[in-house]
Write a structure and sequence with these properties.
The protein is of the alpha/beta class. The chain contains 29 helices and 49 strands. Helix content is about 30%, strand content about 30%.
C-alpha cells in the first residue's frame, strides 16, 4: 500500500511519503516484476491499461481494483475466468505457470468533493488540466514489486513517475514514456501535463529537474538552488542521496507528496515564498526516511516524526526559535488530543486528523529531541547513519532504531522507548514547597517535584536567573512520583525556571498555554453563541463548527454552568455574552475577524469572538482559520489575511525566589499637599482605605478638601453606600433629612456595619459644602447570593440589577484574589469561582456607578472630578475599579493607597500616615439576631457590661433609653449618640417557664 498524506492547505503543509526499497541483489533477483502499460483518453477522463506479472500454478494472486473496470484477464495469452470476493478485490488462482495479463479501464473525473478542513487524498483525476494519479489507478498488489511503466500520451505532454531514468520517444503522433526504476516499491504514481516546462540542472552527479507550469517557471531556479542546499545538508548529516535524480513537480491539485526521486507540490503551495525554506526540505529528507528505509507500519510510523524533527524543527532551531517550535507542538497536543482520541506512538500509522498529527508528528519529534539530549549529538547522528546503512531498502521499526542507538550509546534504552512508545499522554508534574535559604556563604534552593497520574523517567533542565541577568543551568533527574532537590548556589537567584526551552514532552502549565484557535478547534465541548441579529451572515461559521459536533444556543439560553464547562464561539461584536464575560470588545474594522481569549470562568477552556461585516467576508475567510491554529487573533479583508497575533504566555515553569527588593528614592518623597497638587488634573481620583482605620479616612478627607479648594465641582463616590439608597444620600446632603433619618433610611449599620464615626467627618464636609455623594455599591443581598452560589443563582429580576458589562479576564487579579481566598477558605463553604464572580460583580457595579454619575452629570463630565473612596483591595494595581471604569469611559485617573506594601504598579502613590485614634460609639457587648422583627440576644462578649447588668441569652430588646428598638439599625443609631460611661436603660422581654413573658428594664453604664 502507498501511504500518502494530503496537505491541509498552506499552513498545515506536511509532505507525504511513498516508500522505495532497494533490496540486496539476491532479493532483487527474486522480487516480483510488475509490467504496466497505460494510455489515456483525456477528453473523457479515461485510462486504459495492461498489467502483467509472472505467476505460478496454484499460487493465488489478488489485486485491489477499487472502481476500475476489468475488461479481460489472460494467462499466457488465453482468456481465463476470475474469482472476485468483493467488488473491489480481484483474486486469480493460475492453473499453470506463465504471464498473467489484466486489461482494465477506469474513469477519473474531478468529483469536487474535497474539503479544506478534511485530511485525505484528493483523488485521481484526468482532465484538461493534467493527469494526477496517486491512488488506485491500476490493479494494486500487496507487498513490494519492481515496476516497469510505459505511458502513452498526446504530443506535448511531459510525465513523471518513480524513476531514476525517464525515456521519451514519439510514435504515431503520440509520445511514449518509459520509466526505469530498479528498486522495489509498494506502489507507483503518475503525473502528466501539457503545461509543463522542464528546467534541468545537476548537483554532485544527481540530475535535478523542475516540472513547473509555464506561468510559474520563474520559480524553478529558486527551487533547484534550495534543493541543492538541502541535499548537501542531509548528505553531510546522513549518507549520500540514494537516487540518480530528483524532481520538483508542480500539480494542479493541492497536494504535498513525496515519492522516490520526486516531490509533488500543489500550485498554490509552490507559489508561497516560504515553502522553499520549510516544506521543500521536509520533502527531500523523506528521500532517506520513508523512501529509502521503509516504515514497518504494523509496529508504528517513526519516519514522520523523525523527518519533522530533522527538517521543520531543525530550520527553526537554526533561527534560534527551536524552543518556540517545541512549545507549539505541546500546545497542539493539549489542544487536539484528549482521552477519546489519544493513542501510544507505537500505534501511529498515518495522519488522519489534527489529533493524530499532534501525536505522530509533534510528540514523536519531541521524543527524538529528548533522545538526542539523552545520548548526545555525536551518538545521535552516528546512530542514524548506522540505522540507514543497516536498514536501507528494508522495512524498519522502532525496535530497529532502538537497537542502533543502544549499540552506539552502549547503554540499555528499553526504558526510554517503552515509556514514550507505549504510554499515552504526557508527563504531568509540578514543583512544591519551594524555599530559598542561606547556608554559610552559599544559598540553597529546596523544592519537591511531584509527578501526577503516571511516573516517567525524566531529565528536566532548570535555569536560575540572577538580578544582574546572568543564568546558571542545572538538570533535574526525576524517576519517582516525588523527588526532593536541594541545589546550592553561590549567589541568591531571583527566579527558577523549569524547562524554559521545552526540552521535555510534558503537559503545559495553564499560564504557558496561550488562548489560540487550535484550542477552539480541538475542544470537544464548544458551544456556538448565536448572534442577536444578522444570523445569516454567520451561517458558514455555524455550519463549520457544527460539522465537528458543536451545539448552537441563543445567548440567553447559555447558563453559567455551560460557560464553566465549555469553550464558546461568540458570534457578533454586539453579542451580550461579551459584556457578560469581558465587559466590552472592539473589532478592528476588518471584514472578518476572530479573537480567541481565555475563558475567564475556566482556564482550561477558550472563547472565540467572531465578527464579520457580510456573509461574503465570512465565506472568503472562515475556512482559512483552520490553517492558522497557532494564532490568537486573525483579521481578513476579502479573504486576505492582514493581521495575525499570538497572545503572550509564560516561557517555562517560572517561579519567584528572591525578587528584587523595591527601593524608594527618599529625595522624591512628597507631602499629601504635593500629591494633591499632582493629581488635581485627573478626572477620577481613587483613595484606598482599611475600613476601620481613622488615619486612612483622615487622609481621604484631606484629599477631598485639597481638591475642593482647587475645583468646587467635585463629587465623592463611596463604597459604603448601596445604589438603592442614593435618594436618601441626596436628601441628606441637601439638608432635608437629619442624621438619624439618614442613618436609618440608608440602612447604614445593617449594610455596612463599620462605626459611622469613621466616615462622619467626610459626610459632614460633603453636606456642608453641598458636594454630591454617590452610592457605588451593589445591593448586598445580590453580592452575598453570588458569593455563595455564583451568578447562575440569581433570579431574572435580580439579573436586571447587575451591570451588562463585566470583565472576568484579568488573570493577575484572579490570582491575587485566589491567594486571599485560600487563606480564608476554611471559614466558609464558598467555592472560589463564586467568590471571584462576586468580587468582579462588586467591582463592576462600583465602576458602573462612577461612570453613570459622570455621564448623567454634564457639568461634571466637562469640568468636574469624582473622588472614589473604597477598600484598597478594590483599587490596588488598578484591577478592581479603576481599569474597569477606564474601559467604560477612557478618563484619566490616579490611585492613592494608604499603608500598602511598596510594589511595582500597585498605585500612583502610597501614603504612610501616622496612626490616628478616634472615638467610636460604645457597644452593649452582646451578640444579637434579628428574629421575626425582634432583636434577640444570642450571647455575650467577654466581660460584657450587659451580662453584668443582668441581661440574659434569649432576652428580646424592645427599647433603648425609652426609644423603641425594632432592628439592629435602631439599636446602633441609638448607641451612636452615646459616649462610653453614659448611663442607659435597656428594656427587654424575658420568657419565663409557666409564668409567661415579662418586661424588664435594666439600667447600667456603657
Amino acid at each position: 500500500m502507498i501511504y500518502r498524506f494530503l496537505i491541509l492547505g498552506i499552513f498545515l503543509f506536511i509532505p507525504l511519503i511513498v516508500q522505495a526499497e532497494q533490496p540486496a541483489s539476491s532479493m532483487h533477483d527474486s522480487m516480483q516484476k510488475y509490467n504496466l502499460s497505460v494510455s489515456f483518453d483525456i477528453p473523457n477522463s479515461k485510462i486504459t491499461g495492461v498489467a502483467g506479472i509472472d505467476v505460478q500454478a496454484g499460487h493465488e494472486v489478488s489485486f485491489n481494483i477499487g472502481k476500475l473496470e476489468i475488461i479481460e484477464v489472460k494467462l499466457n495469452g488465453l482468456l481465463i475466468s476470475t474469482v472476485s470476493s468483493s467488488s473491489h478485490l480481484l483474486k486469480i488462482n493460475p492453473s499453470s505457470n506463465g504471464t498473467l495479463e489484466i486489461i482494465y479501464t477506469g474513469v477519473f473525473m474531478d468529483n469536487k468533493a474535497r474539503s479544506d478542513t478534511n485530511y485525505g487524498v484528493t483523488g485521481d483525476i484526468i482532465d484538461s488540466r493534467g493527469i494526477s494519479l496517486t491512488g488506485l489507478w491500476y490493479p494494486r498488489m500487496d507487498g513490494l514489486q519492481i515496476y516497469n511503466l510505459k505511458a502513452t500520451l498526446p504530443a506535448g505532454y511531459e510525465a513523471v513517475s518513480e524513476a531514476e531514468r525517464i525515456g521519451k520517444g514519439a510514435r504515431n503522433g503520440l509520445t511514449e514514456f518509459l520509466f526505469e526504476f530498479a528498486h522495489p516499491t509498494d506502489g507507483i504514481t503518475f503525473i502528466a501535463s501539457n503545461r509543463y516546462e522542464v528546467i534541468e540542472d545537476s548537483f554532485n552527479g544527481i540530475g535535478l529537474y523542475a516540472y513547473f507550469f509555464k506561468e510559474d517557471t520563474g520559480l524553478a531556479k529558486t527551487y533547484i538552488e534550495y534543493t541543492k542546499k538541502y541535499i548537501a545538508l542531509y548528505e553531510k548529516m546522513l549518507i549520500p542521496y540514494p537516487y540518480k535524480r530528483f524532481s520538483i513537480v508542480e500539480n494542479f491539485l493541492p497536494t504535498g507528496y513525496s515519492m522516490p526521486a520526486y516531490t509533488l507540490l500543489g500550485q498554490d503551495v509552490v507559489r508561497l515564498p516560504f515553502i522553499v525554506e520549510t516544506s521543500l526540505g521536509h520533502e527531500i529528507l523523506h528521500q532517506w526516511f520513508g523512501n529509502l528505509i521503509y516504515i514497518d507500519f504494523e509496529k508504528g510510523n517513526w519516519a514522520e516524526g523523525l523527518t519533522t524533527y530533522l527538517a521543520d524543527h531543525l530550520y527553526e532551531e537554526q533561527k534560534g526559535k527551536g524552543w518556540e517550535y517545541r512549545k507549539q507542538k505541546l500546545i497542539d497536543y493539549e489542544a487536539f488530543v484528549n482521552e477519546k482520541n489519544e493513542f501510544g506512538l507505537k500505534d501511529f500509522r498515518s495522519r488522519t486528523d489534527f489529533a493524530s498529527k499532534a501525536i505522530g508528528y509533534g510528540k514523536v519529534s519531541m521524543v527524538f529531541h529528548m533522545l538526542k539530549r539523552l545520548v548526545g549529538e555525536e551518538v545521535f547522528y552516528k546512530s542514524l547513519r548506522r540505522f540507514i546503512e543497516v536498514n536501507r531498502f528494508k522495512k524498519a521499526s522502532w525496535d530497529d532504531l532502538r537497537k542502533e542507538f543502544e549499540k552506539n550509546h552502549n547503554k540499555d534504552l528499553a526504558w526510554f522507548f517503552k515509556q514514550w512508545l507505549d504510554e499515552t499522554g504526557l508527563p504531568n508534574f509540578q514543583a512544591e514547597d519551594l524555599k530559598l535559604q542561606v547556608i554559610g556563604n552559599k544559598y540553597e534552593v529546596a523544592f519537591d517535584i511531584v509527578q501526577k497520574n503516571k511516573i516517567y523517567n525524566l531529565d528536566v533542565p532548570v535555569i536560575f536567573t540572577y538580578q544582574d541577568g546572568t543564568k546558571t543551568v542545572d538538570s533535574l533527574k526525576i524517576v519517582n512520583e516525588k523527588e526532593s532537590f536541594r541545589i546550592q548556589l553561590k549567589e541568591a537567584p531571583e527566579t527558577m525556571t523549569i524547562d524554559e526551552d521545552y526540552d521535555v514532552a510534558r503537559k503545559l502549565f495553564p499560564n504557558e498555554m496561550p488562548p489560540v484557535i487550535a484550542r477552539l478547534i480541538g475542544d470537544e465541548t464548544t458551544i456556538i453563541a448565536l448572534p442577536v441579529k444578522d444570523t445569516e451572515i454567520y451561517s458558514s461559521v455555524i455550519a463549520g463548527f457544527k460539522e465537528k459536533g458543536d451545539a448552537e444556543k441563543r445567548p440567553a439560553d447559555i447558563k453559567d454552568s455551560d460557560i464553566r464547562s465549555s469553550s464558546l464561539v461568540i458570534l457578533g461584536d454586539d453579542n451580550p455574552l461579551i459584556g457578560r464575560l469581558y465587559g466590552s470588545f472592539k473589532p478592528d474594522g476588518a471584514g472578518f475577524s476572530i479573537a480567541v481569549k481565555q475563558n475567564p470562568w475556566n482556564i482550561g477552556k477558550v472563547i472565540g469572538i467572531v465578527h464579520a461585516k457580510s456573509a461574503d467576508e465570512v465565506d472568503a475567510a472562515f475556512r482559512k482559520i483552520f490553517h492558522y491554529g497557532k494564532y490568537s487573533a486573525l483579521s481578513f479583508d476579502k479573504g486576505r489575511n492582514f493581521t495575525k497575533i499570538v497572545e503572550k504566555s509564560e516561557r517555562g515553569v517560572k517561579m519567584e525566589l528572591n525578587g528584587q527588593a523595591m527601593a524608594v528614592d527618599i529625595s522624591s518623597i512628597r507631602t499629601v499637599a504635593e500629591i494633591i497638587e499632582s493629581i488635581s488634573n485627573k478626572k477620577i481620583i481613587y483613595v484606598g482605605e482599611s475600613h476601620d482605620n481613622f488615619a486612612h479616612h483622615n487622609i481621604q478627607l484631606q484629599v477631598i478638601k485639597g481638591l475642593h479648594k482647587k475645583n468646587k465641582k467635585i463629587a465623592i463616590g463611596m463604597e459604603m453606600f448601596q445604589t438603592p439608597f442614593q435618594k436618601v444620600l441626596d436628601e441628606y446632603i441637601a439638608g432635608s433629612l437629619d442624621e438619624r433619618q439618614f442613618l436609618k433610611g440608608s440602612e447604614y449599620f445593617k449594610r455596612w456595619g463599620f462605626d459611622y464615626n469613621l466616615y462622619k467627618p467626610i459626610i459632614d464636609f460633603a453636606r456642608t459644602e453641598k458636594i454630591p455623594v454617590v452610592a457605588l455599591n451593589m445591593r448586598r443581598e445580590i453580592v452575598e447570593k453570588v458569593s455563595k452560589d455564583g451568578m447562575g443563582s440569581l433570579s431574572e429580576e435580580e439579573k436586571k440589577e447587575i451591570p451588562a458589562e463585566m470583565d472576568f479576564s484579568d488573570n493577575y487579579y484572579r490570582e491575587r484574589l485566589k491567594e486571599v481566598f485560600e487563606k480564608h477558605k476554611g471559614l466558609t463553604e464558598r467555592d472560589f469561582d463564586s467568590f471571584y464572580q462576586s468580587q468582579v460583580l462588586w467591582d463592576e457595579t462600583m465602576s458602573q456607578s462612577v461612570d453613570e454619575f459622570l455621564k448623567n452629570s454634564p457639568d461634571y463630565q466637562k469640568n468636574g472630578q469624582i473622588i472614589v473612596l473604597a477598600g484598597s483591595g478594590h483599587l490596588a494595581f488598578g484591577s478592581g475599579i479603576p481599569k474597569r471604569t477606564f474601559r467604560r469611559n477612557g478618563y484619566e485617573y490616579a490611585v492613592v493607597l494608604n499603608d500598602n506594601d511598596i510594589e511595582k504598579n500597585i498605585a500612583d502613590y502610597v501614603i504612610l500616615p501616622k496612626p490616628l485614634d478616634g472615638v467610636t460609639a460604645p457597644k452593649l457587648m452582646v451578640m444579637l439576631k434579628q428574629d421575626n422583627g425582634r432583636l434577640k440576644i444570642e450571647g455575650f462578649a467577654s466581660d460584657s457590661v450587659s451580662e453584668k447588668a443582668g441581661l440574659k441569652v434569649e432576652d428580646v430588646i424592645i427599647a433603648f433609653d425609652g426609644e423603641i428598638v425594632k432592628d439592629m439599625d435602631d439599636l446602633k443609631i441609638a448607641l451612636f449618640y452615646k459616649k462610653k460611661g453614659d448611663s442607659i436603660k435597656v428594656k427587654v422581654i424575658r420568657k419565663r417557664f409557666l409564668l409567661g413573658d415579662r418586661e424588664m428594664e435594666f439600667e447600667f453604664a456603657l
